[in-house]
TrEMBL record, chain A:
<dbReference type="GO" id="GO:0042744">
    <property type="term" value="P:hydrogen peroxide catabolic process"/>
</dbReference>
<dbReference type="InterPro" id="IPR050056">
    <property type="entry name" value="Hemoglobin_oxygen_transport"/>
</dbReference>
<dbReference type="GO" id="GO:0005506">
    <property type="term" value="F:iron ion binding"/>
</dbReference>
<comment type="similarity">
    <text>Belongs to the globin family.</text>
</comment>
<dbReference type="GO" id="GO:0043177">
    <property type="term" value="F:organic acid binding"/>
</dbReference>
<feature type="domain" description="Globin">
    <location>
        <begin position="2"/>
        <end position="142"/>
    </location>
</feature>
<dbReference type="InterPro" id="IPR002339">
    <property type="entry name" value="Hemoglobin_pi"/>
</dbReference>
<dbReference type="GO" id="GO:0020037">
    <property type="term" value="F:heme binding"/>
</dbReference>
<keyword id="KW-0349">Heme</keyword>
From TrEMBL, chain B:
<dbReference type="InterPro" id="IPR050056">
    <property type="entry name" value="Hemoglobin_oxygen_transport"/>
</dbReference>
<dbReference type="GO" id="GO:0005344">
    <property type="term" value="F:oxygen carrier activity"/>
</dbReference>
<dbReference type="GO" id="GO:0046872">
    <property type="term" value="F:metal ion binding"/>
</dbReference>
<keyword id="KW-0408">Iron</keyword>
<feature type="domain" description="Globin">
    <location>
        <begin position="3"/>
        <end position="147"/>
    </location>
</feature>
<dbReference type="InterPro" id="IPR002337">
    <property type="entry name" value="Hemoglobin_b"/>
</dbReference>
<protein>
    <submittedName>
        <fullName>Hemoglobin subunit epsilon</fullName>
    </submittedName>
</protein>
<dbReference type="Pfam" id="PF00042">
    <property type="entry name" value="Globin"/>
</dbReference>
<comment type="similarity">
    <text>Belongs to the globin family.</text>
</comment>
Length: 142, 147
């Protein structure tokens, strides 16, 4: 799966339209993920996962930051997320299936807040991008 | 048998009552074909699927999308007996249509996104949970008779 020129510009377009809301959307993505897929909570036994949790907000900001970083370096996502990839392989070891669940929730959040941005073509590009990010983060697992 | 809480049933019914089945169905199927283009393999007879615009405007896609979502309505009406509701359709998808059940999961995920874009903040996390559960149960029921 390769990101075309169109995909890249679609993805950059999404993040520029999301603008300053990215951190807030990161938190909402996590909240929805914990709610919709309760098994994902098993990775956060040390967190307060209640609605409005400061820990979830802070973590959402990190997740959003990583997605923005990947979008800003979309020609070399592996390079941009190399340290995060190491972290996930060596320490976090989040099962690969969960990246798809996070991606689904991020798409839902974008659909909710910017339905007109998420045209079918942009939806396709963003889905591919999120897959690519997940692939990078799990690339060094074995 | 799947257990549905009273709240889940209410969330499902409330969203469904506001769904335009024709529009949502058409959009969901079109997005499936656009976002996951390999799913076009089942629709060779549908004519022009050469671009997102062609897919969105294709009358056969629209009609089939409506048909699929109308059938989904049967699950909403029969939450306590989804397995039986889809028994024959499951056999059909296996024996005649030869559709990999993974496609039911893909369509379910797409439907969630379409609902989110239409209902915005009303599509609360609790709503998303109930609907994600529903699409998962439907996908499972459609795959149940495969052999």
């Amino acid at each position: 799966m390769v990101l075309s020129g169109n995909d890249k510009s679609n993805v950059k377009g999404v993040f520029s339209k999301i603008g300053g809301h990215a951190e807030e959307y990161g938190a909402e993505t996590l909240e929805r993920m914990f709610c919709t897929y309760p098994q994902t909570k098993t990775y956060f036994p040390h967190f307060d996962l209640q609605h409005g949790s400061a820990q979830v907000k802070a973590h959402g900001k990190k997740v959003a930051g990583a997605l923005i970083e990947a979008a800003n370096h979309i020609d070399d996502i592996a390079g941009a997320l190399s340290k995060l990839s190491d972290l996930h392989a060596q320490k976090l070891r989040v099962d690969p299936v969960n990246f798809k669940l996070l991606g689904q929730c991020f798409l839902v959040v974008v659909a909710i807040h910017h339905p007109s941005v998420l045209t079918p073509e942009v939806h396709a590009s963003l889905d591919k991008f999120l897959c690519a990010v997940g692939n990078v983060l799990t690339a060094k697992y074995r | 048998m799947v257990h549905w809480s009273a709240e889940e049933k209410q969330l499902i019914a409330s969203v469904w009552s506001k769904v335009n089945v024709e529009e949502c169905g058409a959009e969901a199927l079109a997005r499936l074909l656009i976002v996951y283009p390999w799913t076009q393999r089942f629709f060779a007879s549908f004519g022009n699927l050469s671009s997102p615009t062609a897919i969105l405007g294709n009358p056969m896609v629209r009609a089939h999308g409506r048909k699929v979502l109308t059938s989904f309505g049967e699950a909403v009406k029969n939450l306590d007996n989804i397995k039986a509701t889809y028994s024959k359709l499951s056999e059909l998808h296996c024996e005649k249509l030869h559709v990999d059940p993974e496609n039911f999961r893909l369509l379910g995920d797409i439907l969630i996104i379409v609902l989110a874009s239409h209902f915005a903040r009303d599509f609360t996390p609790a709503c998303q949970f109930a609907w994600q559960k529903l699409v998962s149960v439907v996908a499972h029921a459609l795959a149940r008779k495969y052999h």
